[in-house]
Every structure is written in C-alpha cells, then in structure tokens.
Design brief:
With 458 residues, the chain is α+β, with helices and mostly antiparallel strands. It has three domains: 15-158, Nucleoside Triphosphate Pyrophosphohydrolase; 160-221, no CATH class; 230-449, L-fuculose-1-phosphate Aldolase (3-Layer(aba) Sandwich), CATH 3.40.225. The protein is 40% helix and 18% strand. The strands form three sheets. Strands 1, 2, 3, 4, 5, 6 and 7 form a seven-stranded mixed beta sheet that branches. A seven-stranded antiparallel beta sheet has the order 13-12-11-10-14-16-15, sandwiched between helices. It has a two-stranded antiparallel ribbon with strand order 8-9. The protein is elongated.
C-alpha cells in the first residue's frame, strides 16, 4: 500500500464486521426462525442467530453465504440483505458492525443438512427466546422486510414445497401478514389472478379447495402477488408511459425530469430511476419505494428527486401522480423567482390561482436533506392555496413540479403549465401591465371544475 494512503488510514479506528442471518421457514401453519447454539465466547450454550466475521478480501454477500453454510449446511437458497446495525455500543467488547440478511427456505428441502447437527433448532416466530444484544431487534427488522418483499414478489413461495394445497397457500399468507383471510374470498383471488381467460378454469377448480394440490408453476401468486398483477405491474407501465410522454411533449432533454405515481392503498410509489436514458428505459426499470423512501422493488436507484415526491404525497392526500421537468418557459419563470400570474383563460381553465414560486431555500436546507427540504418549501408555499385547484408550483432557481389524480394528469398539467408560461412570457413583452378580471377567472375555472361544470361530455 502506498505510504501516503497508510498515513491516511492510521488515524482511524478499525472496526469488525459480522454477517448475521435470520432464516425463516413455514410449517405447522406458522413462520419459524432457525437458531444455532453458540459454541464459544461469553454466550456459549445459548441460542443465537447464525453469524460470523467477514474476512479480508471477502465480499459481504459472499461472506454471508459462506457463514450460513458453515453454521447450518444451508446453500443455494433465497437470501437478501436487510440493513446494517451499527450502533456504537451494540457490543460491549469491541466496535462491531452487523450486516443483517434474511433467508427463506422450505424446511423439508434441507432437513437432511440440518439434522446432521444438534446445534440448530427451529423456533416459532412467537416463541423466539430473548437473546443478547440486538438479535431480537434483527428478527423484527427481517420480518418487516419479508412482509414488504411479499407485497411485490412471490418470495414467500420459497417456504413452500413444489406441490402445495390451497390451504397451505392461504395459511402462509396469513402467517406472513399475521391476520386471517376469508377462505372463499382467498380462493377467488387466486383463481382470478391466474385463471382469468383460461378455458379450463372451472374444470381445474371443481375439487374442494382444502384438498386441491396446486403446482407452483401454475399458481404463482399469493394475495400480494395479485397486487403486483393488478396494481404494481400496471402502475409501472403507466409511470413508464408517463415518463416517455415527457419526451413526446418536449418537456425534457437527455435524462432530465421524472414522473411518479402512488398506490394509496398500500402506500407504495413507483418512480423513474435516476439518470437513465429515456431511449433505453423500460417498464421494468421503474423503482418501487415506500413513503419512507426505502426501495421495495427494483435494481436501479430511484430518481434523486424521490424525497420531494414523497413529501408531496404525504402533504397532499388527494394527488396520485407527480411530475418534475425543466421545461424551458416554466423553468425560466422559476429561475426569475416570479409567480406565474393568471392573465389568460387558458391558464384559468387549469390553474385557479397564479402558479406560485417558492421562497429562497436557506443554506441549512440546501446543505442538509436538499430534496426533502425542496418538498417542504413547496408545502409551505401552499399553506393558503388549494393544491387541487392549482396543481403546480415553480421552485425558485430550479424548475416546475406538477401533480394530478394520476401520472397521466400530472403530465397533462406539466404540458399546460409550460404552454401558459410561454404565453405569459410573450404577452408581457407586448403589454407589461397585463391583468385579468376575477369574474373571468372564476367563470373559466368553474365551467371545467366547479360544482356545475359543463365543459366537455358527460
């Protein structure tokens, strides 16, 4: 190592990193956790999560798989990282950072490996003993992650055998979500999820549900999987199309701009990935996050503006889609730091008030959580403005954000905002003293959006 680099590192403490794994399985109608008996150290003889130290020149993911195989014999299984536990005093003897994983297995597939050792034992999730340090907290974190993941992918099926009954499937879903499901309604959901438009639907489901054996290949669903089919996958396609529409309407260049949409029932947001070209982007590239910004589904990083979108969804519960662009005229008004006044009927048809421009952002807002604070300054600006009647804003020195009941309407409002910003810029060069009467504003807005609206077809 270069001497200069050595000098840099010598002033910093060395930490230990361990990989820990929560192994889940489903049997006897409940979720179980695999623990191992500690064979050394101050906790010798107690039940603990499988763990081990990451070695020099070893990837963390590879280390986790090596450790789990050494402790339990488990290999080639479904495993995902949850998060790190790095509290300074989590371990009293040394500074140790723990990287947590969870794994899902079908117990029957691995009984042979596990039965070779007396040092492993399955505990029902509700009967896990109190363990030292933060291991019980780790299990809770792993359960939370598992529940999130089963909302967007059928990962729970890793805990079932290749052949399973409808009852097993329902019990698995109940165990994961810790709440019962109606038998008949559950069966209907499963049928509709796969057998819609299949000619043999009735024939295959004439047997009683509790005795019906279903191939995993056939039933690739749990109720959360239906959410994917009906909601998330469809929402991804809609958000993808809405992002492509930004290009179609000449609102963005290169990788600028982003569109998102929210599923309010499950508080999940689908948004464009960060810095990905519109030319190569696909619906599968869309990223799913929760309202805390955690990535639930997707292999790419979400848009850097995601925190702004999330603030808006939390503050404006009636909106279903958000758009951010750097379209020329709307951005010019934002950079000028000016509200876009309502001086024409085109504007009044869609925005009841002037489209407001936010205040300057303070240094601590810019240097702190910038994108989140951008959302906060927007919300602050709308303290006395109805965000449904005025579905857009100009962020000073930055650019426009618009929103609507869904992604398509948010894009529509972005197009309108750019056009009225252009009209206003041209109009003020002709007559700098332009105004429009309140009664004309009210007439045009209310004929489209008022209680007695009559524009368009019923």
């Amino acid at each position: 190592m270069d001497q200069t680099v050595k000098e840099i590192f010598k002033d910093y403490p060395k930490f230990y990193i361990v990989d820990c794994c929560v192994v889940f399985s489903f049997f006897n109608d409940s979720i179980h956790v695999l623990l191992v008996k500690q064979d050394h150290g101050p906790s010798i003889g107690t039940w603990v999560l499988p763990y081990g130290f990451v070695l020099d020149n070893e990837d963390i993911d590879n280390s986790a798989r090596r450790i789990l195989a050494a402790k339990t014999g488990l290999e080639n299984i479904f495993m995902e990282q949850v998060r790190c536990f790095g509290e300074a005093n989590r371990y009293p003897y040394e500074r140790v950072i723990a990287c947590l994983y969870y794994a899902l297995i079908n117990k029957e597939d691995f009984d042979e490996q596990l039965n070779k050792s007396d040092n492993t034992k399955w505990f029902p999730l509700t009967e896990v003993p109190e363990m030292k340090y933060d291991q019980n907290e780790m299990i809770r974190a792993a359960v939370t992650r598992m529940r999130y993941r089963t909302m967007v992918k059928p990962v729970g099926l890793n805990m079932l055998p290749p052949l399973f009954t409808m009852r097993q499937l329902r019990k698995l879903v109940e165990a994961i979500n810790n709440k019962p499901r109606d038998k008949r309604n559950f069966r209907k959901i499963v049928e509709e999820a796969y057998y819609k438009d299949h000619a043999d639907r009735q024939k295959k489901f004439q047997t009683r549900s509790c005795s019906l054996s279903v191939q995993r290949k056939i039933i690739r669903t749990i109720p959360e999987r239906k959410i994917i089919i009906v909601m998330l996958e469809e929402l991804k396609r809609k958000v993808f199309k809405a992002n492509i529409d930004l290009v179609k309407h000449n609102l963005v260049l290169f990788t600028w701009g982003n569109v998102s949409a929210i599923d309010r029932k499950h508080n999940l947001v689908v948004i464009k990935p960060s810095g990905v070209s519109y030319d190569t982007m696909t619906p599968d590239d869309m990223v799913v996050v929760d309202l805390d910004g955690r990535v639930i589904e997707g292999n790419l990083r979400p848009s850097s503006d995601t925190p702004t979108h999330l603030v808006l969804y939390k503050a404006f519960p009636s909106i279903g889609g958000v758009v951010h662009t750097h379209s020329t005229y709307a951005t010019a008004w934002a950079q000028a730091g000016k509200d876009l006044p309502n001086i024409g009927t085109t504007h009044a048809d869609y925005f009841h008030d002037a489209v407001p421009c936010t205040e300057d952002m303070a240094r601590k807002e810019v240097e702190g959580d910038y994108e989140l604070e951008t959302g906060n300054v927007i919300v602050k600006r709308f303290k006395d403005i109805n965000p449904v009647h005025t579905p857009g804003v100009l962020v000073k020195n930055h650019g426009p954000f618009t929103w609507g009941k869904d992604a398509d309407e948010a894009v529509y409002h972005a197009v309108v905002l750019e056009e009225v910003a252009k009209m206003a810029a041209i109009s003020f060069t002709i007559n700098p003293n332009l105004t429009m009467s309140e009664h004309l504003i009210e007439k045009h807005f209310n004929r489209k959006h008022g209680p007695n609206a009559y524009y368009g077809q019923k």
